[in-house]
Amino acid sequence: MTASSTRRTTAAHSRLAAVGAIAVAGALMLTGCGDQTKDAGSDNATAAAPLADKLPQSIRDKGVIKVGSDIAYAPVEFKDSSGKVVGIDPDLAAAMGKQLGVDFQFENGTFDTLITGLRSKRYDIAMSAMTDTKDRQEGIDSDTGKKVGEGVDFVDYFTAGVSIYTKKGDDQGIKTWSDLCGKKIVLQRGTVSEDLAKAESKKCPAGKKIAIEPFDNDQQAQTRLRAGGADAGSSDFPVAAYAVKTSGGGKDFQLVGEQVEAAPYGIAVAKNQTQLRDALKAALDALIKNGEYEKIMKKWGVTDGAIKEATINGGK
Asked: Are 220 and 283 in a shared domain?
């Protein structure tokens, strides 16, 4: 999961499916065995993957970067009708893989467990429309303010805000977050949308708090709203916009109001993996420079969130 949203901001896992692996590098892979890195085969591999030498040797030896992702957050990452993992993140990962000479293998996980999986080394990185925030960087639970881990570093690659959507033709008079007082909203657990709903509910008059129903993934929240089980839903802007465009052939939902809380999406990397972090940044910058990044943004209709340069820990 979980364009955004600014999707996903609780520090415990710190926003808009099924276990799958997608091979995304067409480049030759480096074995990195002793002096063999000097041979002709290695020269060819380096030419095909110009940034391979920036990766940690352990990653080069494996030839794989394991990616923790909540694969139910279209169009950022989701499964198409054939079961293939597709979306903005997989396309960017595939392009980075060509620069780095490795495969990015996506492994599905519940959004609010991705950073835990990163800490336990189940994943090398987490790439899942995850908003870069100071709390996540520092390992702080945004609900309690308590330290829950050492935090992570982020390589920022996109900018997105949070949107509200309702059933089409039935906006319940909702235009802003304050209009949600006394109403029910569905959203994905552990996201910026949930944080915003909780914060806004505290401002509501007594007896008119916001009823918040969180789900494990955004698709479940959409299903609930579609069935009439809530007044509104919220997710990262790209995800909400995609749902409005595609659900029911565009007849199920509508966006209301403006997106808020624009913030960067970041690839999460363990604090002690600075070489991997810097290699990812170099790969993203290369894609921005050679035009591949822009092509991917255009393909998914999200050029409004495009960045001009990858940054590290740019979230606030």
From this structure: no
Note the pTM of the prediction, 2 decimals.
0.77
Is pLDDT above 80 for 15?
no
- Print the domain residue range for 67: 34-160+263-312
86 and 211: one domain?
Answer: no
Alpha-carbon distance of 300 to 74, in angstroms, equals: 10
Spatial contact of 14 and 8, defined as CB atoms under 8 Å apart: yes
On whether residue 307 sits in a domain, the answer given is: yes
Query: In the structure encoding, which two tokens stand for residue 146, read together?
Result: 């308590």
Q: Indicate if 272 and 133 belong to the same structural domain.
A: yes
**Taking the CB of residue 36, how many other CB atoms lie within 10 A of it?**
11
For residue 199, pLDDT over 70 is answered with: yes
Residue 128 φ then ψ, to 5°: -160, 50
- Residue whose token pair is 């519940």: 110
Pairing label, strands 184-188, 232-236: parallel
Give DSSP secondary structure letters for 199-261: HHHHHSPTT-PPEEEEESSHHHHHHHHHTTS-SEEEEEHHHHHHHHHHGGGGTSEEEEEEEEE
Q: Is the CB of residue 140 less than 8 Å from the CB of residue 11?
A: yes
14 lies in some domain: no
Report how far residue 124's alpha carbon sits from residue 68's, in angstroms, rounded to the nearest whole number: 8
Check if the beta carbon of residue 128 is closer than 8 Å to that of residue 114. yes
Residue 16 has pLDDT above 80, yes or no: no
User: What separation in angstroms does the CA of 130 have from each of 4, 16, 231?
Assistant: 9, 9, 26
Give which of 264, 267, 300 is closest to 65, Cα–Cα. Answer: 267
State CA 286 to chain mean position distance.
20
Tally the domains of the chain. Answer: 2
Tell whether omega for the bond before 75 is within 30 degrees of 0, i.e. cis: yes
Q: Tokens at residue 94, please?
A: 């595939």
